[in-house]
Amino acid sequence: MLNKLAGIEERYNKINDQLCDPEIISQQEEYARLMKEQKSLTPVVEKYREYKDILKTFDESKALLDEGGLDKDFRDLVQEEYDSSKENLDICYNELKILLLPKDPNDDKDVIVEIRAGAGGEEAALFAGSLYRMYSMYAETKGFKIEILSENETELGGYKEIVFSVEGDGAYSRFKFESGVHRVQRVPETESQGRIQTSTATVAVLPEAEEVDFELNPADLQIDVFRSSGAGGQKVNKTSSAIRVTHIPTGMVVECQDERSQYKNKDKALKVLRSRLLEIEQAKQDAEIAGARKSQVGTGDRSERIRTYNFPQGRVSDHRIGLTLYKIEAIMNGDLDEIIDALITADTAEKLKAEE
Predict the structure, then answer these.
(1) Which distant-in-sequence residues (6+ apart) come within 8 Å of 304 by Cβ?
(2) What is d(CA 206, CA 224) in angstroms, rounded to the nearest whole number?
(3) Among 35, 42, 95, 241, which residue's Cβ finds the most Cβ atoms within 10 Å?
(4) Predicted TM-score (pTM) above 0.90
(5) What is the pLDDT of residues 252-267, one digit of tens each?
(6) CA–CA gap between residue 100 and residue 9 (Å, rounded)
(7) What interhelical angle do 2-19 and 28-67 show, nearest 10?
(8) Residue 316: in which H helix or E strand, if any?
(9) If 0-12 CB within 10 Å is exposed, 13-18 middle and 19+ buried, where does residue 111 land?
(10) What would the pLDDT profile of 260-290 be if each residue is shown by its tens digit?
(11) How far apart are CA 138 and CA 96, in angstroms?
């Protein structure tokens, strides 16, 4: 591992030299590529240099102790330095092992999130709306930008379906474990008897596919224009600017009617379609590479029940890692970091185990 780290540091130093080269600076694409590579290597190199500094202190204190002949006070000081550096060396080494794990190539990408009401009728649609609000508030705390791509609102303000993008550095790395079935247990607003109802909503999180990731063949697309429909009121667009895109080879259909511009709706629909098709391709590749091995935090399959929100008990339970938190109000207001950090930690532990 240390040989690998030395090679990474050498590459990092070479990139730094190249970024100072006027010829490279004039090549915009190459300069941007090197800047991106430098950014990805920086945490590893900084931690490796920290490790080397600790190792130097450890070796020096060990040498002094082995020589002997030290007076008691100085020997106690050196012993303390030796013990401290030995402990920090182990910690730093383990941190380096984590930094060297293969990185998910999608982690830095923007995402497209699809929320659909499941079992439970109007209450499920209201829960889908609650999840959208939760994710919106969480995105805001992270400085991410949210844009609705498509929505199908109900009369009571819930959503049969809502699709939105989340843009920001590392958006996918924070949202990727949210795919699956979310279950809610609460007394619906429509329930007069005070009975608790169980409803569900499904969440799908897709890394946003750029045109270079997945190229759509225009011959494979059927594009239809129609008039928007919705729950009513001023939000309904009276012009025929809504777009339906059908991907003929797969039969996949994407509709977008959020914008008044036909061209904007088409762009949004193609963005969603491209990401859905890329997800299918990646799922095939992952199945071939991973075989039957599953991550501890689940498959990300949207048919898998991943979390329960129990309002009467004020708790949220993530079934994949056995985590239960009694702060449902804070979580529904976007305080998701504790859950997401725990999921990332569990996933990292599983990857380290697989590397052994």
Answers:
(1) 180, 181, 298
(2) 24
(3) 241
(4) no
(5) 888 887 667 787 888 8
(6) 13
(7) 140
(8) strand 315-318
(9) buried
(10) 778 788 888 888 888 888 777 777 766 654 4
(11) 29
Q: Which amino acid is at 27?
A: Q
Which residue, 131, 266, 102, is CA-closest to 205? 131
Which residues, 6 or more positions from 262, have their beta carbon under 8 angstroms from its beta carbon? 225, 240, 241, 243
The secondary element (H helix, E strand) that includes residue 247 is strand 242-247
Mean pLDDT, rounded, for 187-212 = 80
Q: Give the Cβ contact number of residue 246 at 10 Å.
A: 16
Tell me the C-alpha distance between 184 and 307, whole Å: 9
Distance between CA atoms of 131 and 137, rounded to whole angstroms? 10
Residue 35 tokens, joined? 């800047």
Phi, psi of 100 (to 5 degrees): -90, -5
Sheet holding 145-153, edge to edge: 145-153, 159-167, 111-117, 197-207, 180-186, 305-310, 315-318, 323-325
Contact 340, 328 (CB under 8 A): no
C-beta separation of 310 from 294 below 8 A: no
* 3-class DSSP state of 193: coil
Give the tokens for residue 76.
């106690």
